[in-house]
User: Fold this.
Amino acid sequence: MSDDYLVKGRSNLELRKIAAQTHSYFGLRKDWQVDIIACLRRGQVMTLSGEKPLNFEVVPDHEMGLNDGLTSYASSAITIRARKTVNDHARLGVGRPRMTLAHELGHAVMHPGAPKARRALGNNVHEFIPAYQSAEHQAKVFASEFLIPESETGKFQSPKDLAVHFGVSLEAAEYRFKDPTEQIRRAEGAAKLNKLADELRTNSDNTRHVNHFLDQHCATCGHATLIPIGVKYLCQTCDTVTDQFQDGDRL
Assistant:
């Protein structure tokens, strides 16, 4: 059995969409820990080729050999096997075993064909398989998104906070927290906000409708020249963009 397999190429963005769809399929909350064992025991899973029966088997450690988890396809069902200690530790909320089980779920959703194993000591990376075509890379990205939804990462100040809240390893949280795709998404969001601000500023300068200003003062320059931009405020005097004030906020 190989440590990795060449599979259909998928971008990280596509993999996250697949994980998000699986998250929705199980009816999970995005803001709290996933009960991964309950998902695996559901008996069904939505794969890329339709809904399939899913068997989850907890196996004595010695029967798993070098594997922590193993996913295999048959004509009648998909079977995920997990080392007993992995299952026991996942039930206790330990991060790495939870990631292992989510990793195998990713294989079940995306990778028919040869059995896919997660090695206890880590899978070897084959240089001839690019990341976007690697079954192991795809399952890793899937597991990360499934356990830590992208929409929630910006709510935490550090990888440690993220790890504690979602019940994952610090390593997984650091990977998610520093994810280049997430950083790009945030940068794109900031760019869109600045573009909208420029458009509104231009329109306001052209029309000079001062009655568009809100009856509040900018916390930076003190001028009453604030205009709303979605859920933000733009000050036309100093160009500062801030969050809208909530009940109880003070300048």
Confidence is low (pLDDT under 50) at residues 207-211, 245-251.
